[in-house]
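Hi there,

I know you've been waiting on this one. I reran it after we fixed the sequence typo, so this is the corrected version. Both the input and the resulting structure follow.
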Amino acid sequence: MQEERFYYLVSRTLSGSVSEPEKAELQQLIHEDERLHILYLQIFPEHKETEEEDRSEALQAYTAHFTKMQIAGQFEENILEEQPPRRWRRNLLMAASVLFTLMLGGWWLWSALPAKTSEVASREVKTPKGSQSYLTLPDGTEVWLNANSKIVYDNDFNQSARNVQLIGEAYFKVAKNQDKPFTIQAGGLKVKVLGTVFNLRSYPDEENIETTLVSGSVAITLDDQPGNTIQLKPGEKLSVHNRVSTSPLITRRIVDSLDTPEAPLLLLSKIRVDPLDSTLLDAAWKEGKLVFDGEEFGKVASKLEKWYNITVVVENENLYNTSFTGVFGKKSLVKVLNALQATGKLTYRQENDTVYVH
């Protein structure tokens, strides 16, 4: 009870309504009880420069002490249900409790939140070997993903910009939005478009990154030549040496070719279509056709691996200098291999999911 009386008198002092007899009573309490004396000095330190500063810090100390006491269970319910003249103190207790709870809750929420980073979460769509997929981006852009391909875009895609990353091959029908250009990062280049239809092939294990424009316009910038931009027109195809290829053989071939003056880093050509049905050869995969358009065997092997989910082991490196042409509509692996073997340029044997070619 002595402690309860002490807090009552302290609160009267802080509110400025303490009477002279109450002041004397408070002094008597702290004189008789050393613990209350120490508590009093914590609430009313003697070195404060101004009365306002003194009062403010005293109120904070008072609130802190009261809250600690309440948490410790030293104020029973019957103490809170006092006579009407003391209700103001109950309100003060409740306010202190609420304040402390809010502070504790705020600290808990702050500490529970994950650390903020400058990175924005991303979404990605993958297509495994042996399959294809179709998706629509939040801006309405349509994307067909070829086998063993992945497209990545941030969760804030289309809020202020439209940026995606592509590994593999995709056919894009980009929704028009002149205020938000659509940019694709693929290998060592960026393709910036507005409303455009085009095919982009950028596999890390292949020698070239190929962009084939069907309609609209695209601007292509190489990462290592940011000041130069190549503008494509409908019907044009741009092949760029893939300097970030993950294939040791291809990397060596690229380095060798770059040392040769006549080997082009960029090759601009016209798109080609299937004479039978005018299908765009570079995007025939979207129609279920496997196409070899005068391609060296390195790319042929890469296409076979992704199309049929197999591994091709080349036992004769001379094959990399041999080209093949053919269009296969939904044919089995054996039929395609037999057709390639019929050219007399190679032989093969198959062991489970591995094809050895010589």
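Quick highlight: The longest strand covers residues 162-173.

Best,
R. S.
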